[in-house]
Structures are given as structure tokens and as C-alpha cells.
Amino acid sequence: MKNFLNYETRGGGRNLNSCNGFTLAEVLITLGVIGFVAILIIPNILDNVQDQKYEAAKVKALVSIGAAVKEIAVLDNLSCAIDAEDFVENHLKKHLKMLKTCDNSKLSECGITPDASRKQLTKWGDLNIVGTSTIDRNAKSYAFITADGLSVNLFYNPNCLLRENENTHNAPDRVCVNAVYDMNGASKPNMFGKDRGFVTVLYPNEEAVAVAVRYIKSAGNSNFKNAPKLCSSLGKDLVVPNIDELTAIMLHHYIIPNNSNATFHWSSTSSFGSVGYNINVPLGWAIRFNSGERFRQVVGDGGYSVYCIKNVTIK
Fold first, then answer.
1. What is the Cα–Cα distance from 166 to 80, expressed in whole angstroms?
2. What is the tens place of the pLDDT at every residue in 88-118?
3. What is the pTM of this model?
4. Cα–Cα distance, 178 to 65 (Å, whole number)
């Protein structure tokens, strides 16, 4: 009787001994393929996890800082302090738990360091506050660390304006408080849109609005009517910023990666009225970034630049 395990088929068939396992070459090839796939996939997985942390930090910053500042606006008024230090130490501290505060000359002790482009923000003039009539360009920031570990560099404008009289003042004049935060202090990447972001609070009274823009992408040019379609074509959760969100973007325009060099930018805020020879027609609000002017234009006119965002706003 033949040994079954050594049985060999005629005509060049495979030896059944090979059914006992893979050859060394087969194992090495399989491991090589698995390793190659892992090299491609694992970095993307890690990046996605880190991006989710960044997104969570933006929401956390708005909920903590934005809500605390807005509470001051509702209970009192955001014109209550003399400067950033006074606002933080004597007002914001009552509404937001802090682990540490730092004078403008010691920002690094609160984790405030230059960004990836080596730019350090220490005074209002380091931001895009063109056309302002209410902000002192040399007014210094003041820093603190929140209870949940955010390093915050806060800028304060005691002269910020109400929402009314839209056509008489420029966009920066509406900004009362601007908080630039870093979720991990001096650790890299120190980039806006990643571990760094901003919370901007506009209007000094109960109408105060806190804005934290989570994602910013330049989408090209369009008229007001077609701008929303342009954003939705890039992502189902992308929208055109409203006039307050666009004001916050303008303020940080020079330090936002891959920003648009365009002058005119649409918001999603609509209106109705008269512009030039156009009487009682639908209008859209826009901002001129090199002058700070907030103005209205006929919705079908103007091939203005469009930013698309993921937004978080507390009204």
C-alpha cells in the first residue's frame, strides 16, 4: 500500500506535502505586502485621529472662551475693562477657570510661541485690522492657560461697536475680544487650522456673537447666488461664512495658511435695499480685505472670492 502522505499525482501535480503550510518565500512575500499596505494606511489613520483632536479643541475653545466672554456681554458689557490684562484678571476670570496668567512680556510662560512661519502675535497691529477707528494698534495682548490646557493669547478692544450703523464703520471695529489659542503650547506643528485657532467675539452687548472657524478653504470666485453651490461642491458640510465669520477670517488673514490674495470676499449674509441705480433689490454682504469695509452688493453682480468653512458659532 502506498504511503498516502507521499502520494504524488501524475502529470506534474502538486505534492500533497505542500498542504501542510506555506513555504518561506510565500510567508516573506505576504509579510512584505502587509507591511507595504500598513505603510500606506497607518499614517492616514494617525492623521485622521490627530485632526479629530484639533476639531475637538476648536469646539472646546468656543464653548469655554466664547461662552464666557458672551456671558460678560449679556450680564454687563464688553466695554467694561481698560485693557486686555484688566479684562482677563478682573472680569473673564470670574467666568472662566484659569491655571495661570502671563503678562505680555512673558507670553512664552503660558505656552504662547511664534507660529510655523515664525510670526509672534503680541499686539493688535500684528493682526489685519485695516481701516479701524476703534482699535489701538499698539494695545498689547495678555495670556492665560485654561483649566483644560489651552494656551490663550487674548486681544481686547474696549471701544468695539454695536451691530447698528453697518455702513459707517469697518469690520475690525465690531471686534471686542479676539483669543488666539494653541491646544499644545510650544509643541509642533504650531499652525492655524491644526493645533492653533481663534475665537472672535463681536458686539459689546447682549447681541454679542462668538465665532470659531474650524476649517477655511479658498474656493475661487463667484457671485453671491452661486457661492453656496461652489462650497457644497467641495464638501457637503462646507458653507460660505456669514458676515461675522468672514470678519474673523479677515482679522487673521495674514496668518491663515493658503489664504486667498483676493481683495473682495462674499459672506452668506443677505439683505434687501438699494445700491447705486438698483432700487429695492436683493443684496449680499461682502468685505474688502485691504480696507476692512463691510458693504452690500447686488446678488447677481461681482465675481468676488469665496471662502468655504466649517463653522461653530454661539449667538
1. 23
2. 999 999 999 999 999 999 999 999 988 756 6
3. 0.81
4. 10
